[in-house]
């Protein structure tokens, strides 16, 4: 069933695992991610960025794809459809009214007071609809769709500010930027575990780790032990899909049936997602 993230993340936090947010770029992603979740008996979050929603034809199209696949597949595991890096109150409202069960309001580029006011407004609307909300403080580096943060701008969240934002807004989960990056890392990631621990200890809210692509397993496990209950992955699925599509096209230069080259790409996404679910410990937690 399509549900909010609230209960799945509370359980993950209590039981010491993380639920994966896998970004959905089109139909094939939804197929691969839902199939992986059912096979692994794992809760799952389908992340949809504003850019991806635009690409698919709108928020309503993304919801319709996920809902109709869940009916066809007879999905039994909990599934959330979540707006990734929502840029404004209006976009969050649009997603909520289109049937999203969760939204992120990313006010991380605003001064603290503005971020709090904006997040609060989104929470008020979302909670009326039973929709969960994720907020962010600090700045995650790298690029995802329209969101570009260069090295100089990337910043670590300040624990006292995190506490203030969480207390004043009543968000369901929280993404403190602590050195993770969207897209591939330049060298090894340098995550601020001390601050992660501090933020979790003073807030006790499920934490979210963005930029899941390229983070070593030991760092993922450490993050989970310090309160991370959600890990976002996008680029790694894109890379594995594209590699499989490229191989299929290279192997048969006269191929033209999209099912014959997109199919292997979809299978590659599914296998990557299964690997992440096992790594995050969400398998058999549905
Ligand atoms: O919001 C989505 C993610 O943080 C994805 O990051 O593309 O580096 O895996 P990634
Ligand atoms: Zn992100």
Automatic annotation (TrEMBL):
Zn(2+) 2 binds at residues 106, 136. Its cofactor is Zn(2+). The active site is at 84 (proton donor). Dihydroxyacetone phosphate binds at residues 183, 211-213, 232-235. One of its GO terms (molecular function) is fructose-bisphosphate aldolase activity. Zn(2+) 1 binds at residues 85, 182, 210. It holds the Pfam family F_bP_aldolase. Its EC number is 4.1.2.13. Keywords: Lyase, Metal-binding, Zinc. GO terms for biological process: fructose 1,6-bisphosphate metabolic process; glycolytic process. InterPro entries: Aldolase_TIM, Class_II_FBP_aldolase, FBA_II, Fruc_bis_ald_class-2. The keyword Lyase applies. Binds 2 Zn(2+) ions per subunit. One is catalytic and the other provides a structural contribution. This is Fructose-bisphosphate aldolase class II. It comes from Salirhabdus euzebyi.
